[in-house]
Specification:
Largest sheet: 7 strands, antiparallel
Shape: globular
Order of helices and strands: HEEEEEHEEH
Number of domains: 2
Mean pLDDT: 77
Strand order of the largest sheet: 1-2-3-4-5-7-6
Number of strands: 7
CATH class of the largest domain: Alpha Beta
C-alpha cells in the first residue's frame, strides 16, 4: 500500500506541495525505512518585524479529524527546542465566512487559568489552487490556519484530587461566562467533559 501511494504521488507532481503534502513537516528516515525524528517548521511575520522561522520537534502522533469534508483539523504535540516546553500545534482550514480564531485567542489572553496562544499563521487559501480559472459559481474558500498554543492537560474526568477537579471546573466556568467571550460561538459548543481539559497552571486565586 505504501509503495502504491508513493507511485501515485510521484506521478502526480514533482512538487510536494502541489501533490498535497505539507512541506513544513519533515521526518528523518531510519536505515530500516521507517520514520524517525520529526520536525515542523513554522514561519511567521510580525506586523513590524522580519520573517521568523522556528522548528518544533514532534513528540507525539497527531490527533486527526477523520472526515471527508470540513476543517481537516490536525493537532500535534511538539516541543520547543529552546526551553523544552510541550506545545500544542493545530492545523485546520477556516471557511472564509467564519470569524478568525485569532479574535477570540486575543480575548482569552486576559483570562486566568485559560490556555494562551503563542502564534497564529494563515498559510494558504484554496483560491490559490484554481490556476487562475474563472469559475461559473461562487465557491466558499478556506484558509489554511496554524495555531501554536500552550499544551493542554488530560480531560477533566482524569483529575487526581478533588482540589484539582474544582480548580479546573472553576476555570472552565470563568471562561464560559466571561462577558468578553460571549461573542464566541465556540463557547456554547464545548461543554462535554472531554472538551474541558485540566490545565497545568490553574488560576491560583480562586481556590486555596
Amino acid at each position: 500500500m505504501n509503495l502504491f501511494v508513493r507511485l501515485v504521488l510521484g506521478i502526480t507532481s514533482q512538487d510536494e506541495r502541489l501533490a498535497g503534502l505539507d512541506t513544513s513537516i519533515r521526518w528523518n528516515i531510519l536505515p530500516n525505512g521507517r520514520k524517525g525524528e520529526g520536525w515542523i517548521t513554522v514561519e511567521s511575520k510580525p506586523k513590524d518585524g522580519p520573517l521568523q522561522v522556528k522548528k518544533y520537534k514532534i513528540v507525539k502522533a497527531p490527533m486527526i479529524r477523520f472526515s471527508i469534508r470540513g476543517r481537516a483539523t490536525t493537532t500535534w504535540t511538539v516541543e520547543d527546542p529552546q526551553n523544552k516546553e510541550k506545545i500544542c500545534l493545530k492545523d485546520y482550514w477556516r471557511a472564509e465566512d467564519r470569524q478568525k480564531e485569532l479574535v477570540f485567542l486575543e480575548v482569552a489572553k486576559k483570562l486566568e487559568g485559560v490556555c494562551h496562544y503563542y502564534d497564529y499563521v494563515e498559510r494558504a487559501c484554496t483560491a490559490e489552487f484554481h490556476g487562475g480559472a474563472k469559475l461559473e459559481q461562487h465557491l466558499l474558500h478556506r484558509h489554511e490556519t496554524r495555531v501554536i498554543m500552550q499544551a493542554y492537560g488530560a480531560p477533566i474526568d482524569h483529575f487526581k484530587s478533588p482540589k484539582q477537579m474544582l480548580e479546573a471546573l472553576r476555570d472552565a466556568i470563568n471562561g464560559e461566562f466571561d462577558g468578553s467571550l460571549c461573542i464566541c460561538p465556540a463557547c456554547s459548543l464545548s461543554r462535554r467533559p472531554q472538551e474541558s481539559l485540566l490545565w497545568r497552571r490553574p488560576a491560583p486565586r480562586y481556590l486555596q
